[in-house]
Amino acid sequence: MNKSFKRLPLGLPLTVSGIATIATIFTGKKLHVAFGAVWGLLSILHGLQHAGKLEHDVKAFAGKTARKAVDKAESISLHAFLAGTDIASYAPGRIRVYNLALAGNDKLADQVSSFVRSFSGVTDAKVALNTGSLLITYEPDELRKNPHLANIETFVREHAKIR
Question: Which is a Pfam family this sequence falls into (predicted)?
């Protein structure tokens, strides 16, 4: 696109034609249509001047919308994952759970074990891909400093098949 066209200031003509279009609503129809056509043409030219910015804005908006959809899907997936998890055994500092979604799924296993390891007090989280088993080891006193994690530990203790 021509550099002089890109630098052509259209803000003032756009404003004037917009005001004139609104001001001529109750006057002659031809005058109103003429100002409206000028306003529309200037708007198109202004859009062409800023096509790169418009494209960037559309992509940013679409990216945010897509990210929200992915976040929601991940949240639903996490709930589905937890619903399919069996608590196999519990001993203070050691929890074993099973989830068939982990069996043979390297990507999910890495995500889950990294997430579990991110909590203060957790010393390790290992997935056995052949069985879908997740072994979590942790420092009980450190983990219990977080009330939410302490509640989770209580729930696990009460619902474990082997204690």
Answer: HMA_2
Whether residue 34 sits in one domain with residue 88 = no
Whole-structure pTM over 0.85, yes or no? no
Q: Calculate the CA dihedral of residues 63, 73, 118, 135 and round it to 10 degrees.
A: -150
Question: Total domain count for the chain?
Answer: 2
* Cβ burial 149-161 (10 Å sphere, 16+ → b, else e): beeebeebeeebe
89 and 155 in one domain?
yes
- For the four alpha carbons of 11, 12, 15 and 16, in that order, the dihedral sign comes to negative
What range does the domain containing 12 cover?
A: 3-49
CA–CA separation, 26 vs 84, rounded Å? 67
Q: For the segment 74-86, what is each residue's pLDDT rounded down to a tens digit? A: 555 656 667 788 9
Is 106 within a domain? yes
